[in-house]
Structure formats: C-alpha cells, structure tokens
C-alpha cells in the first residue's frame, strides 16, 4: 500500500510526498537499497544535492560492505557526476577500480584526485594519492618526482631522497637511462648537494644519450 501511494504521488508530480512514502518503506526494511536509490534520484530531481549525495553515499557503502564492488562503483560515479570535487567518492571509486583489477581506470581517477588536491593546496592529501599511484606503477618517473618534491616541501627530505635514490637505482639496473637522469637531477636539486659520485654517474649516462653539452 505504501509503495502504491508513493507511485501515485510520483505520477502526479508530488516528489516530496513520494519521498516521504519511500522513506516509510526504508524504516520497515533498512536494507532495501533499490528504494533508497530511488529516494536519492528524487532528491536530486528536487535540487536537494547534499541530501542526494548523502543518500547515494549510504547505498554505495552498503554495496561495498557486501562485496558488490561494481554496484558500489556505479553509485560513487553518480555522486561524482553531481559533485566532481567530492574527494571521498573519488577516493572510494579509485580504490574499487583497483580492487576490481581496473588499473587504468584506477590510475585515471587517482590522477584526477591528485590534480584536484593540488588546486586545493592539500599537500598531505596529495602525497597519499601519489603514493597510491606509485603502488599501481612504481616505475613512473614523473609521479615519483612529484611525490618526492611534495615530501621535501613538507620537510620530509630524507624520505624523499631515499625514494628517489632507490628509484634511480632501479632505472639504472633496467637500463632506463632517461628516467635515471631525471631522478638523479631531482635528487641533486632536492638535496642541495653536488655529490661528485652523483655527478659522475649522471654525466656518463648523458654521454651515452648523446647529450654532450649537459654532460660537460
């Protein structure tokens, strides 16, 4: 009877009254996610963006807790469609993509979050996102340099230098000369030191790359 009343209100365009009826159904069965989604949709149609976001968030968290990751990711995407700068939804979506093995989608979402946090000036939050990107792709030189530069600005220079040094060593072992040079240049810049051993290594690799002026 309650559902029938809600549908009648919908047909007449009385969205607020329909929502109240659907909320009665949720009181009777809190796990009725289809009805809760319907409430979110109606709240969005009524221009109640914050309420709709909260409702969608409740649905997404339920699906995630139940292991329905595809359903949860679809709902988080609805939230981001409404509020592209919603950090929690973006972070959750990236995590779910990662869990689902959708590495490219996870990478894209983490990159979007990194750019958003940079605009907001949230250095600490951006470092965490860059670390997740590096978990996905440890050999990404540009991401590693951004991560180290951010750490150095936050006063964690030792951690930044260790990360750059380890990454440069891996590049050298794999014969990735250009990446090695970029990482070593960042290491020198962030440390503020002109270690002769570092300069010799970089100079040799620049010679191999044919960058004679830089090598000199």
- The number of helical runs is 13
Overall helicity? over 70%
* Straight-line N-to-C gap: 85 Å
Overall pLDDT: 93
Rounded to an integer, what's the Rg over CA atoms? 25 Å
Tally the beta strands.
0
Overall form: elongated
What string, H for helix and E for strand, traces the elements in order? Answer: HHHHHHHHHHHHH
Structure at a glance:
The protein is 81% helix and 0% strand. It contains 13 helices and no strands. The protein has helices at 2-11, 15-28, 33-45, 49-65, 69-82, 87-99, 103-120, 123-136, 141-153, 157-174, 177-191, 196-208, 212-215.
Description of the molecule:
- This protein has 216 residues and is mainly alpha-helical.
- Helix content is 81%, strand content 0%.
- The protein has helices at residues 2-11, 15-28, 33-45, 49-65, 69-82, 87-99, 103-120, 123-136, 141-153, 157-174, 177-191, 196-208, 212-215.
- Helix 6 (87-99) packs antiparallel against helix 7.
